[in-house]
Amino acid sequence: MAVIKKKEFDYKAQFSSKTKYKETNFYDCGEAFADACSLPGPVMGGINMMLGHSNTAKTTAMILAAADAIKKGHLPVFIITEKKWSWAHAVELGLQAKQDEDGEWVGDFIFNDSFDYIEQATDFINKVLDAQEKGDIQQSLLFLWDSIGSIPCLMTFEGKGGKMHNASVLADKIGMGLHSRISKSKKEDYPYYNTLVVVNQPWVLLPDNPFGQPEIKPKGGEALFLASSLVFLFGSQKKAGVSHLDASKNGRKVSYAVRTRITVLKNHVNGLDFKDGKILAVPQGFIADTKEAIEKYKKQYSGYWSNILGGGDGDITITESTSDEDDD
Description:
The protein is of the alpha/beta class. It has a single domain, classed as P-loop containing nucleotide triphosphate hydrolases (Rossmann fold). The protein has helices spanning 11-15, 31-37, 58-71, 87-92, 118-133, 154-157, 163-183, 223-227, 291-300, 302-309, and strands at residues 47-52, 75-80, 97-99, 105-107, 110-112, 141-146, 194-200, 202-205, 215-218, 230-234, 243-249, 252-267, 278-282, 285-288, 317-323. The strands form three sheets. Strands 1, 2, 5, 6, 7, 10, 11, 12, 13, 14 and 15 form an eleven-stranded mixed sheet that branches. The protein has a two-stranded antiparallel ribbon with strand order 3-4. Strands 8-9 form a two-stranded antiparallel sheet. Helix 5 (118-133) packs parallel to helix 7. The longest helix is centred in the middle third of the chain and has 21 residues, at 163-183.
């Protein structure tokens, strides 16, 4: 029988392709944040979700990331749809902004809060990315959307749609569209990093049996969750899971800090995360939930709190008041 000689064909060289990617980098939300959840903050070149119930410090983390972006020479692009923005709070957290002669807040960022429905916001993001590709913007971009669960799609806005239409639009516009444009910036040959951070409101899926546990779900369906490289959970699953620390002096009492929890619900970056990361959110950022850290903070910001609580003699006393903590 004749021996058939195989034709030499280097199929690996013909069909294999290896894309080179940039080194993994993060925006820095502070040492206490990293100690609580094992990550410095949002990963560059990906979609990051800040998920949690109200008053769990999601926006605090977002603004800290924006402040760090400016320090890195990147351009924050604020997309504010929840209509609860406070410039005083942002500046106290370290965002470099000041008021011009017309009273408008300006700085090394883009700020837009004019959106009524989802498609307006996603079209805006695409226009900014187009400007970068044309060379009109020559910086890495950090898009910050607060919050993505606060506006409907156009059909729902016009009274013709509902939850399923909102989810469908987010799946098309972000899950299939913006996700590709954002993630391609991780490639080594792309000149910039582009990153999207979204603050998202939740709903709670109740258990289907008496022994099950409630599960937190992001508004707008699963597409955005699936597209996210990192999902940070603030607070607990079934409710906020926070407690409040009050400061009092000479009979006056104010809210001093929020004790919250920051864990990583999804990590497609390095797989590492802590599940027990309690932390304190204060007006200037995050501090560790320890007696030593609280005492250090009291000394460092004594002037700030004296202005709020009133001057004169008397010590500032810290007490824990209302609690919404649970064990999940």
